[in-house]
Amino acid sequence: MQAISGQLTEFADNEQFYMRQQVQQTHPGQQQPGGLPQMFSPQVNHARLLGQQQQLMHGMEGGQDLQATYLLKQKMEAANAAFGHQQQGLQPQQAQQQLLASGVLNAPPGVSLVQQGVGGMAPPPGALPPQLPLATGVHGSGLGLAPVPLIHHPNHLLVREVWANNLTAEFASIRRLVDQYNVIALTTEFVGTIVRPIGNFRSKNDYHYQTMRTNIDLLNPVQIGLSLSDAQGNKPDNVPSTWQFNFLFDMSKEMVSPESLDLLKKSGVAFDKHQSIGVNAYDFAQLLVDSGLLLTDEVTWVSFHAAYDFGFLVNILTDASMPNNKEDYEFWVQKFLPSFYDLNVLSKAVHDLKGQRSIPQPQHSLESLADELGIPRFPLFNTTGGQSLLALLAFVRLAKFPVFKLSNGSLDFAQFKNSIYGINKE
């Protein structure tokens, strides 16, 4: 750790170094703090929570101050004692951390980096959120899996920032990787759901589609995240395999509420750069078509919010308004992406098959799924590029879940292929 810290000043201005930190979780069955609506992405929710916590601390008065101070003192004493015990077990890892430091210093320019444990070792006890249900059985809230091995190489946690000036070069890198690393996770950052349709609808799924269609026609994506691996979750060691594409976005011309705009700024979106050097959607579409990622069933696409993520992709690739009905939308998705999985569908299927349909579940999100799968939380996962990496890790983990390998052979993982939650799957 000392070797890493001593070299932080040598990083370029456009690089960031994310330290591992424990993230506060909600209790299963409890809403997210502050009653955050689903219209915001994880990185926007994170910024909103920070603002609420600062207001709470600023508004403490009188006896509440004394009581809070006393409680804080008790908690800090207990935390310090636990931290001291934890540090005793970290001494043997110092030599391996020197190796990690060398990988950090060799990071290419224009990337973000989150530090993770070294060489596939299990994380220290305090590194995992306290409520991870890693070993719970069929009737617990978790999925009964052992902790996921940590990523083995620091480059696996590099996120390449892509702007107009390096768009072509980064797609050239993707073309070189796609033959071997043909599983790709997709995430999209946009300003949130701003309108809802009214009228009569054929079904609940039709209403969901019309809501998605209307918003995508009115909005432009702010960022798109892509992350590559092979079917076993292996990633290239010497180059980044996760990208965050920052799109051209002019705040004066876009439909966005002041609240959403403020939250996006707090979450780290640099709108001045988006307006000046953001990626043009037409250029992105052309290079994506030439990348080898589309129009082939040799590539498997993964998303947690597949309806919106694939919807923005179809909208960009066709350069036209969304289809009027969900059947035509499904046609275009399967035309461009012949093989895909929706993590929302998979995770709900796992809970149903494990007999947890009647058990109250935490608010369903990619983060709650990652917790159940034993994937540690990192600050990087609050970014759009980091979300694509998290979705990829979750997919690889779910693909190995033993419930898909029942002895009678009646259940096949592939039966959930090409299903989109809320569109053609409940």
Automatic annotation (TrEMBL):
GO cellular component terms attached to this protein's record: CCR4-NOT core complex; nucleus; P-body
Example GO BP: nuclear-transcribed mRNA catabolic process, deadenylation-dependent decay
Domain of life: Eukaryota
GO molecular function: metal ion binding; poly(A)-specific ribonuclease activity; RNA binding
Primary localization: cytoplasm
Catalytic activity annotation: Exonucleolytic cleavage of poly(A) to 5'-AMP
Pfam families reported for this sequence: CAF1
Gene3D superfamilies: Ribonuclease H-like superfamily/Ribonuclease H (3.30.420.10)
Subcellular location: Cytoplasm; Nucleus
Keywords, ordered alphabetically: Cytoplasm, Exonuclease, Hydrolase, Metal-binding, Nuclease, Nucleus, RNA-binding, Transcription, Transcription regulation
Annotated TM spans: none
EC number: 3.1.13.4
Top-level EC class: hydrolase
Family: Belongs to the CAF1 family.
Protein name: poly(A)-specific ribonuclease
